[in-house]
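Aim 2, interim progress: modelling of the 2-acetamido-2-deoxy-beta-D-glucopyranose-bound target.
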Amino acid sequence: MTLCILTFILFSQTLIVGFSNALNVTVTPYPWAWHPVGENASLWCSVSQKRRPDSLLTVRWVFSTEPGHEQVIGRITKSGAAHIAANWSHRGDLSSDNLDRGHRYRLTLHDLRLTDQGHYICRVQEVARHKSRWTAVSNGTAATQLRVSTFMISEEKKLFSWKLFQDLYLYAVLLCCVGILSLLIFLLILLCQTIFQKRRSRALVMRVQVRLTCYQISLAKRKEKETSRQRLPQLFL
Ligand SMILES: *[C@@H]1O[C@H](CO)[C@@H](O)[C@H](O)[C@H]1NC(C)=O
Ligand SMILES: *[C@@H]1O[C@H](CO)[C@@H](O)[C@H](O)[C@H]1NC(C)=O
Ligand SMILES: *[C@@H]1O[C@H](CO)[C@@H](O)[C@H](O)[C@H]1NC(C)=O
Ligand SMILES: *[C@@H]1O[C@H](CO)[C@@H](O)[C@H](O)[C@H]1NC(C)=O
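Predicted structure of the complex, ligand included:
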């Protein structure tokens, strides 16, 4: 068990040493860059620190659309000379700056096409002279993804504003519809209420009239009775 742990620690330490031996390479923009068709795009590959002060760097820019399928765009030799592949020569540009701290390599692609979409990989190798021969000391790799869209920026903006306008228009129409509908419902309720009230008042009037006529009739009957009662004694007299 202890042996296991010890070997594990040793193994992880060698791993860490192995990693720290690698060059710190970064590509920007990262993780992806977005450009419309027809624009120029620039990608930067930075190497923050070399392993050895007397060493030189060689850089290779590689294009890949799928894993295992790579095309070399161009390379920068240890003397700083840029060589671009024949079929990229009229489309791309390579340059390098030596900064105070580290190095920076630029890849510019002109007049972007949809087929330029993919991964752009920067492979850096640090070489040093060893017994009058240049040998690799360390290396590092970084990549970013380029996305190319069919719309120009202005078109995209236009499309966006048109869509926004359409949405606003839709909302306005919807709001209007809701307003009209609620107004109609309100009017309907008002109409129903007035009709109901009218009917009720008419029924009340009718009831009052009926009672009145009933009362009148009973009054008339009573009067008749009274007169007949008054008449009877006269008749008998
Ligand atoms: C690598 O370099 C970048 C700057 O280029 C820095 O931000 C980052 O911390 C470095 N990473 C390591 C592991 O040194
Ligand atoms: C792209 O680069 C070319 C060459 O440097 C330049 O002539 C052109 O104006 C650039 N296009 C854009 C959209 O910046
Ligand atoms: C460039 O040439 C290589 C062969 O040298 C080929 O495999 C690759 O497909 C070509 N790329 C383009 C964009 O034509
Ligand atoms: C990069 O360096 C490692 C050791 O640091 C080595 O094993 C590997 O083969 C190197 N790769 C290239 C492409 O030089």
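Residues 153-236 form the longest helix (84 residues). Confidence is low (pLDDT under 50) at residues 1-19.
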